[in-house]
Amino acid sequence: MDLHVSLVGRRDLAGQIYRQLRAAILDGRLRPGDALPPTRELARRLEISRNTVGVAYDRLAAEGFLTSRVGAGTFVLEGGSAGRGAPSASPLRARDVWEGVSAWPRPMPGVIWDFRAGLPDVGLFPYEAWRRIMSGVLRSSALDEPASVGDPAGLSGLREAIARHVGVSRSVRASAGDVVVTSGTQQAMDLIVRVLLEPGDVVAVEDPGYPPVRILLTAAGMRVRGVPVDAEGLRVDRLPDEARAVYVTPSHQFPLGMPMSLPRRRALLDWARRRDVVIVEDDYDTEYRYGGRPIEPLQSLDEDGRVLYTGTFSKIMRPVLRLGFLVAPPSLHRAFRMARYVSSWHAELPAQAALARFIDEGLLARHIRRSRREYRARHERVAELVGGMLGDRLTLVPSEAGLHLSATLREGPGRRDDAVIARKALGAGVGLFALSEFAVTGPPVRGLVFGYGAVALREIEEGIGRLRHVMDA
Predict the structure, then answer these.
(1) What is the pTM of this model?
(2) H helices present in 180-261, as ranges
(3) What would the CATH number be for the domain defined by 13-76?
């Protein structure tokens, strides 16, 4: 291995080498069986005598950390590494807000029928095409924007490709200059908080709504207020007067699934204009629409430049491809670039270059068309089976888009807690979310969320049948 030893001063050189190697072994950086450099090589590298290195090695060997084999070299001894971590005692303490923050979603081990919302079918992804493009990016001059001068907003080629893509597929009005490449919705929200909000500001979110955004806002010191939704989407008449920002999913409300009606979208824009409020529009899966009229985004209806539009490629392509985007008006271009610069300047440059080519070659549009056909079939099958096999227990929420369907628990004397149902379903190998998990500040909506991105069409009936058995038990 390549070992670097930094020496301060020239006194007790053998002791310095001993202590640094011992720490590396205890920390697990040097593992059992790892070879140490020969004494002659390490002495030459550190410009000290070979005997000095030998003294340090001998001391470590005497204490049971190293072993030498004639003709082979010096190695870390089995049992010498204790995997020591950072000091357990420290005066440092996190801010109180982090005591109440926990990750979402919870792990779901043992899932056989995976109905968790938000997961695409990675088997539909064109791996060969992506591998070809990525190989070309790594071999060529595609990454010709040096890290020292690159634009924090992202590679220019990708921002141009994104602007064209969302203009054609989503009717979003954007030029390349309006686009900031992000690692997804979470980073987009983090940038918005940095640029536009102050600790203590009130941010309104849909209730029920997307937990990670609520968690991020809370951790950033925002006061999060849940606003109820109905069949037309966010209740504009219930927005808090003191709100500085509103986060919405108008094309496909998460998690219930209904779109925001045109009158409600216009009312929201009017309310924001009168109160000087920023609207964050999260359009997370609008490519997957299976019926009805196309939903015009708030951003395209906005005449005042107060809508910030976010999207992600994780739902379209693969969750591990952490790339998304934020569309912002010109007045905020510089601020968002600087916010991106101070948070993560050059994230995922090879993936950015590959995605630009993937879009430019028409492969993204082709992948969306192909996967949309498959997801439409799953959407229809889930709706049919939930309405049939579980129709006496659940009421489907009408939805014509996305990668999930939601259903509320019917009222009745036998009604049970949706979290209990989800927990028992997991024990039977069925993974899905309870609607109550998405409650913000109001009374929780009770029901179940059926994602169909990660469960094959042929497996849907068996999975829902297993859920029926759990609910009957």
Answers:
(1) 0.81
(2) 185-196, 211-219
(3) 1.10.10.10
